[in-house]
Write a structure and sequence with these properties.
Layout (H helix, E strand, L loop, with lengths): L3 H19 L6 E3 L16 H10 L7 E5 L5 H10 L2 E6 L2 H14 L5 E5 L12 E4 L3 H14 L5 E5 L11 E5 L2 E7 L5
Parallel strand pairs: 1-4, 2-3, 2-5, 3-4, 5-6
Antiparallel strand pairs: 6-8, 7-8
Length: 191
């Protein structure tokens, strides 16, 4: 059980911390339409090994635009820009990890190659993506599948960490990155 005094102290430290990040401005954090409810997936960051494994599995390169749906602190799109030369867009409903993402992008020197959007991933425009990364629950992936197939161009690679689409769409390839299982799909022609 967490002592309420520590919860209040934590909030007191978090709020000024967000204000410090606000001084950087919102040039790379776009406020979008986002319902006022808790995210369906808790913020749980991928390991560095899983992040690099996902981007390598997708054969990410400088011509790619990587969209991370449910991006949390932005580590995947930041790595895509920093280590693979790609551009990236992170979308998340929770503004707190998005503020961390903006901060980390600036520290990594890739703020000109990444953008973060606060919004509902079901409403987001993802049509420019050439790579989509997911670390969501399988139930959410299955609900998202029709949107992915409808909006993504043939040849777009989709990589998921830990949870795939189940029987709805078996992966083309499955690999291990340390303790993490990663899955790859390619949007087919004539979807």
């Amino acid at each position: 059980m967490v002592c309420p005094r520590f919860v209040v102290l934590g909030l007191a430290l978090l709020v000024p911390g967000c204000a410090v990040l606000d001084r950087f401005g919102d040039t790379k954090l776009t406020d979008g339409v986002a319902p006022v409810f808790d995210p369906e997936v808790p913020y749980f960051p991928s390991t560095d090994e899983a992040v690099l494994g996902m981007l390598e599995l997708a054969n990410t390169g400088p011509k790619d635009v990587v969209y991370d749906l449910g991006c949390g602190d932005g580590r995947i799109v930041i790595a895509a820009a920093k280590d693979f030369g790609a551009r990236g867009v992170g979308i998340d409903i929770d503004p707190v990890p998005l503020r961390m993402a903006v901060y980390h992008a600036r520290r990594a020197g890739v703020e000109d190659r990444v953008r973060f959007v606060r919004g509902d991933l079901f409403e987001a425009d993802i049509g420019e993506a050439t790579v989509v990364t997911l670390f969501l629950f399988e139930t959410l992936n299955r609900r998202l599948l029709p949107k992915l197939l409808r909006e993504l161009a043939p040849g777009t690679r989709i990589v998921a960490h830990r949870y795939g689409f189940g029987d709805a769409w078996p992966p083309e390839k499955t690999v291990q990155a340390g303790a993490s299982t990663l899955y790859l799909w390619t949007v087919p022609k004539g979807k």
